[in-house]
């Protein structure tokens, strides 16, 4: 190992208009190490790595970027790539109608005019194997799940055989099992001398993976943690910016009337995907929080989408004794069901609208009078939601495009809750959300349940699911394989019931 | 955030928003153009000139309102020109050859437009044929139908009352068509700005999946917008027929491209979800001013189309550049490269038109 850091930034200052997002940040990444970059939503983590990767080009910030000890000017992402800096951005960014190979090798499809499809597929195959993915290189990306897309983005970064790999929240779409598998892969890569900068909000990943960590808060480095400093408590405190006691609010579900009743639910897999739901029945009661566990492709999101009517379904869904018509989410919505979807970019945000309009789009009826919008009322509602959820945005009229990932998520939660649904379906509610805000979301979920709402939560993080919910369903390959109430089971029970029906080597591949 | 501070920032914000709204740019460009023409040729801007520009604008303007709403809903209509032509011909045929009362014949013309819009909408939305193909097909079909009905001959004469209305100049020497255009534009603008369905239309064009998950019947909105576009196209054609006093087969020819060019100059995005009626209408006016201005300052009319094309590309280019200004780079870099090496509608969309 050399003494020279693989990547070093010094005194980086970056502003957008009049707001300064990075206020003099310095960071070093040793070759062969995995270094955590931690901090609250909006702390400036993504902005910092965009500087390291030429996305925010030289000239748009002040400070020095050094690769292998020599100062570099990165004006375009290509510059960073040529210097061996691989980058997996926070938002999944794939070209839907192209194949896996074309997406993985984008920008590097051989030289000259000739494009050797077979050679490219072979190269792609090697990269996919490295990540334990079994999908065919010719598969169209439009049929891939969020998790597969995320792995594909990592394969794309690895295609350049980089010396430095920067991963901005690479596990947000992965379940614990896949995240652990990815961790092994990263360890292997680090052992070959690769320096890895790793952004995450998951405490456990920092504990398992990182050799050290830098904590950002409001654009400044507030802490440098070495391996020995990395304890759960220190990390949580550092990430939240304060002590977080009782991440999960203590709760006891008192029992209530049936709010949502699902019978023999079936959802057919989307074209090219294998995730399905088969013959699933369950009830959720007023004031109850039901957690749904399972691996990638187990059909968890499909289950929620089926109940909500976002995809065609068989079987019946009943709310408060009344059957809900299938076919369109509006039937579910008018029955009092609300849903937060998993993929912010594809099924959540409206990039052509302001933060305010993104919040109210599902509740225009309540901010209008006889079909005419009540702008003052709409602003009031928007300010309330943004205030309640502490969404960090320059203003209610600013675009949602430049909000940090966690703040986009809070905004969408606000949209979901605005019509005050009595049955609330949450698909990965803490995706990309910092530790402090997670605690806030857990409290919010708890409060909603206490007020009598029935909640169904899908989460890839088992400790979160176990901490938050009253009862659990375990899905594997679209079927219900286990059900238990809080206290009767643990992570082991969930993993064991999945393992009984799924061969172990299918863990990451789907 | 204290209320006082947020209010202070609110005003500034509002000013910034007006400037960033896309309309400011095109209005400014229009003013500069007018001044330039005026300086070169002081005769430009005479009352007669303005009148000529505005009456020429009115027919296409009426059609542009439908096109703008449709574009904001995420689709577009290439058949508006031949729809205008066919509707006018059908109405002319009904009143001239079948002794149908003028009012009924006009209704018949409008109905033809609405029907064409409905067919476009159903083909695009239900059969999932891209609007470009579906409405291009309709362009030919409607044009062919016009030929079939007329055999290439103008329908003439029409009842006297038609030209009486078509050539009347009730306000400041401008015709009913202009009055109708103004009314339709104001209604369209109000619809998009202040009504629930108008706002919803932006969501439909911005991301139909999200709109559907928010409970919107996306297909209805799209089909509705197609019907509106067809109906307004018919209205534009009928007004011109009235003004000419005959059912001429050339009514509407080439209008589709002029309409799309005009509204794009005015900041309406071809990718949906972005734009306004005011902006689009000013864009239409701008193109009209350029065409008339060139004539007035003595440049051969043959140059007009070259000017129209260049201005459209320039306008969109300026728009892209302006949106990038505060940040000096597109926000989604990896996609930008992906978009460069392969067409990525989503990415290209946002790079080109992402609203500020
Ligand atoms: N292109 C931009 N224009 C304006 N403001 C921006 C832009 N990009 C980021 N910001 C702002 O900079 C701040 C830091 O954002 P950044 O995305 O770096 O946060 P983050 O630490 O990655 O947060 P998260 O954990 O939520 O992803 C945020 O307040 C964000 O709104
Ligand atoms: Mg980020």
From TrEMBL, chain A:
In Gene Ontology terms, what is one molecular function of this protein? ATP binding
Residue limits of the ABC transporter domain?
7-243, 262-502
The record, for InterPro entries, names: AAA+_ATPase (IPR003593), ABC_carbohydrate_import_ATPase (IPR050107), ABC_transporter-like_ATP-bd (IPR003439), ABC_transporter-like_CS (IPR017871), P-loop_NTPase (IPR027417)
Q: Which residues form a coiled coil?
A: none
Recite the UniProt keywords alphabetically. ATP-binding, Nucleotide-binding, Repeat, Transport
Name of a matching Pfam family: ABC_tran
The reply to whether Cell cycle figures as a keyword in the UniProt entry is: no
Answer yes or no on keyword tRNA processing: no
Which domain of life does the protein's organism represent? Bacteria
Under what name is this protein listed?
Ribose import ATP-binding protein RbsA
Q: Which gene encodes it?
A: rbsA
From TrEMBL, chain B:
Listed GO CC annotations: plasma membrane
InterPro entries recorded for this chain?
ABC_transp_permease
Q: Tell me the compartments it is located in.
A: Cell membrane
- The name under which this protein is listed is Autoinducer 2 import system permease protein LsrD
| GO-annotated molecular function | transmembrane transporter activity
> Keyword annotations for this protein?
Cell inner membrane, Cell membrane, Membrane, Transmembrane, Transmembrane helix, Transport
Region (Disordered) residue ranges read 328-356
Write out the transmembrane intervals: 15-40, 52-71, 102-124, 131-150, 170-192, 223-245, 257-287, 294-318
Keyword Cytoplasm recorded:
no
- Compositional bias per record (Low complexity), positions renumbered to this chain: 331-356
Short name of any one Pfam family annotated for the protein: BPD_transp_2
Q: Which organism is it from?
A: Nakamurella endophytica
| Topology within the bilayer | Multi-pass membrane protein
